[in-house]
Amino acid sequence: MNPGRGAASARLTAGTVALLLGVSGCRLLAASEHQPVQMIGLPRPRTCLLEVFVQGGSPMAVATLSSLVAATARGREHLFIRDSGTGALLAASVAPGPPRVTVPGRPAPPGPGATSFQKSRYQQAMARYWSARRAAWAELRREMHARLLAWVHTIVRRAASRLHPADARTGAAPGGTLDAALSRLAGDTSSLAQAGLDYGGHEVIAILGTDRQTTESVPGFPAMPTGTTVVVSDFAGSSQAQAAWQSHLLQAGAARAAVLTPAISGQLASVVRQGLDGAIADTLTSVLFGLGQARLRPAAVPQLRRLLNLLQASYPRAVASIEGYTDDLPVPGGNRSLSWRRARAVLTWLVAHGVQPSRVQAVGYGSADPVAPNTAHGQPLNRRVVVVIDPAG
Q1: Cβ pair 281, 289 in contact under 8 A
Q2: Which residue among 3, 125, 176, 308 is least enclosed by CB atoms within 10 Å?
Q3: What is the pLDDT of residues 63-103, one digit of tens each?
Q4: Which residues pair with 274 in a beta bridge?
């Protein structure tokens, strides 16, 4: 054989083998980078219930209903809207659940003895993986928001089309009273229980708007399921009527009763959100204050320690709103400032005993939302602090 021809043949064979190995290596590399896809979605929300009683068919009533439902909507929420004058069911619906999306699976790590090139390729693949997941989460949140807005628009429009106009003289729907409307609550509760729905304290009843005639005579509230929050907005009655409503709601079994005057009805959505989240409201009955005072008394310590245990042991990731209140007697600097200092005193004690400052906030509501008549016997009860623990915070 010609030596030159033999050497050329050998070089051609070696080149072919190298090319084949290179092609095979690329295929193996591509095959190793191919990952199965996976499905991801937003956290599955807990089922909750919002039952709204709306008064009259005025544009303002519909606007209040729309803003409340939009501000508090969450996936799998069960929503009932009733006419507060007749009790007629205007709309009932369940909010859409969270969407899901397919994303590439997590890249397989390189095996033992991997080259620096393989490790670099793996790091690049992981960077792409996390970037794709972040983009998918952002898109899921946008999609969930869009779904909820569309749901709110549909159900509010349906309710508004069936809402009976209010009587021009009394503000109530003709032929009906709030007592009659509230009597439907027992039927709703029974039907939901028969359907096997347990909301576990994530239940809110919202009464939107009351006229003076209604507020001065306390309605017959039915027994409330355990853990229910009841909130009344734009309460038109006197402070004595407000305290009576709150007392009757608590006696009916409500875990939290918020009777909001027009001046503080801006709290409506916040209170409803807390109720749907299953927030725990605790009135610190031992944390009462002297006239015009914001200093904690020794008698407050046992209840403060119980609150500390809730925040550190029972709900270590929860946030809490510490709400201060006063009676209606004027004080230097104003009742709003005094109520904030009372809430701040509780906050300072909690932080000094190990609660992270980022988990607690102090809010002062002045003489709003009294729990007792502002008389000589009732005023001390109104000089109080309420703590709302939000487990979902």
Answers
A1: no
A2: 3
A3: 999 999 999 999 989 999 988 877 888 999 999 988 988 88
A4: none
- Token pair for residue 334? 């104003």
Query: What are the phi and psi torsion angles at 289 (to 5°)?
Result: -125, 155
DSSP 173-224: PTT--HHHHHHHHHHHHHHHHHTT---TT-EEEEEE---HHHHTS---PPPP
Instruction: Report yes or no: 201 and 255 within 8 Å, Cβ to Cβ.
Output: yes
User: Beta strand pairing status for 77-83 and 89-94?
Assistant: antiparallel
Can you read off the two tokens belonging to residue 353? Answer: 């005993």
CB 155 within 8 A of CB 68: no
CATH topology for 45-96+151-278? Rossmann fold (3.40.50)
**DSSP type of residue 95:** P
Helix and strand numbers, DSSP H then E, in the chain? 10, 12
Contact 229, 256 (CB under 8 A): yes
Distance CA 4, CA 66 (A): 90
pLDDT, tens digit (0-9, with 9 covering 90-100), for 172-207: 444 456 776 777 776 676 677 677 677 767 889 999
What tokens were used for 171? 């503000």
Question: Are the CB atoms for 136 and 129 separated by under 8 Å?
Answer: no
Domain boundaries, the chain: 45-96+151-278, 279-393
| CATH of 279-393 given 3.30.2310.20, 3.40.50.300, 3.30.1330.60, 3.20.20.70 | 3.30.1330.60
285 confidence band (pLDDT: 50, 70, 90)? low
Do β-strands 360-364 and 385-390 pair in parallel, antiparallel, or remain unpaired? unpaired
